[in-house]
Amino acid sequence: MSNILTIAYTTEGSTDQRFLKSIIIKVFEEVAFGCEGSIDVFDPVFIRLPKKDDFVSNLLAVAAEAHKIGINVLCVHVDADNNSDEQVTHFKVNPAFSAIENQNDNISCKNLVAIIPIHMTEAWMLADKDLLKDEIGTDMSNADLGINRTPESIADPKKYIESALNIAQAHLPKRRKKIHIEDLYQPIGQKVAIGKLEVLPSFNKFKLSVEEALRKLNFLN
What we know:
The chain is an alpha/beta fold. The protein has 10 helices and 6 strands, in the order ββαββαβαβααααααα. It has helices at 14-33, 55-68, 86-101, 122-125, 129-136, 142-145, 157-168, 185-191, 194-197, 201-216, and strands at 3-5, 7-10, 39-41, 45-46, 73-77, 112-115. α2 packs across α3. It is globular. The two termini are 19 Å apart.
């Protein structure tokens, strides 16, 4: 009989939600494949953060909702907004995770996985630049598009992608509908290969956390 793995996730924004859903399921399925026995990985359930200023209170509410609906693992996305994850981990993620851990076991989902892209989620969209160009519909070089830097070295990868879109579509007729960055999150999330993302240290931290979450469930040795 198969074990069942139920996952919930929360994100900072709606575009992060569209991009990360497919990433999360692919990583959990890959890690589950290495487990003993059969595991049915259910599609991740999105839980929206409450609109309060206090991140700890917000995440406590999300963890309570995850427990209520029978979630095994809760993934929490927070952008680093910096060239490392140290500050956001120390001042935001760790306090929230500690508050959840101190809750009664019958109240909160405590099997937590952090997703912390360096700078912001859009850095992960640059992990496969050929895929990005396919989605934009251009055969211009990375240099011509201005996307030839290492993804996590870019302070504002969202503007970086928007600039590439403007360059690639500069000569399109005005009547032709242009692609905007909002159009890219879901298809790139669905199509990007795990192997491409594994060049990013922040992604590998996420994947290691997924492995630890499955160990807590005794799905992985």
